[in-house]
Amino acid sequence: MWLIAAILAVASAAAVHMHAPVLLVFALSCVAIIPLAGIMGRSTESIAAHAGPRVGGLLSATFGNAVELIIGIFALKAGLPGLVKASITGSIIGNLLFVLGISFFVGGIRHPIQRFNIRAARSNAAMLLLGVGVSFVVPAIFTRGAAHASVALSSVVALVSFLIYISGLYFALFTHRDVFESIDETVNEGTDEAGQHWRLWPAVIALLLSTVLVSLESEWMVDSIKTVGESLGWNETFIGVIIVAIVGNAAEHASAVWMAWKNRMDLSLEIAVGSSLQVAMFVAPILFGFSLLFGHMMPLLFSWPELASMGAAVMLVAILMLDGESNWLEGAMAVGAYLVMAVGFYSLGAV
Questions:
Q1: Is pTM beyond 0.85 here?
Q2: Quick one: which of 313, 345, 322, 264 has its CA closest to 94?
Q3: Cα(280)–Cα(81) distance, integer angstroms
Q4: pLDDT below 50 — which residues of the chain?
């Protein structure tokens, strides 16, 4: 993975400094971020393993979506709050419908009925309804475009979401850790099969180096987005919802599907649903704070197509998780819903 990441990073850097076509720079930057994100995830897992279950869980929950956070920060710095909100939408519906759907489908082909921890699933479903249904829908209903009201309410929403997210971590890692024991056992089994974690200091160095490279690639990608959108006829919402979201989550996507194939649905579900929760209740509030810092205001007010898509995704996944079982047909339904939404966002540019 390091070799692939190094080759792509060098190629994208050469393209930037040789003033290659913007489309080539954009493509190389997007592709280079994917293996780098995988390295960040692997190094974070290794550091977490050395730090112990509680500190390790906190590290994983904090840095699990670092790539989306980095891309969002550079997009806000470039004055693209609409793109950032679209990428938040894309991460949520992508993880819930596409990733979880593919996981259900692939796992269901090999194992007709797959079961997972129903108590953890219900807890995650409730958090999703709060993080998306309340935190994102309520501001859109009450502000109705009033600038001052939207910023004030977004500040409250960001603070409450962040506090609830921290409370959820405390719930999972301390007061009700026994509820999530099956997930921890699955993680440990997966580690045994994949091999030993990296040693601590090599993992720290790998995390720092990959973070720097992801930052560079994100800056180059963001700088080329406007030109690429104009040349290909892609609207900003489609780029954020589909392209940026897939690039930022590709490494996690592969891990979730692979765990489902090996019938480790607790871990697959934790990757897909946990990532969506982190985006809604941790990444979004942090990016709202950076928007205030950069002077490019990004109230947590989403368009109605974005709200409808996120709301439908949360409701569908919550229903699918209620019985603690999954099969390939449920996966096909989720993926089908995602494809319909992707086409819908693409068509927004033609309206």
A1: yes
A2: 313
A3: 16
A4: 187, 190-195, 350-351
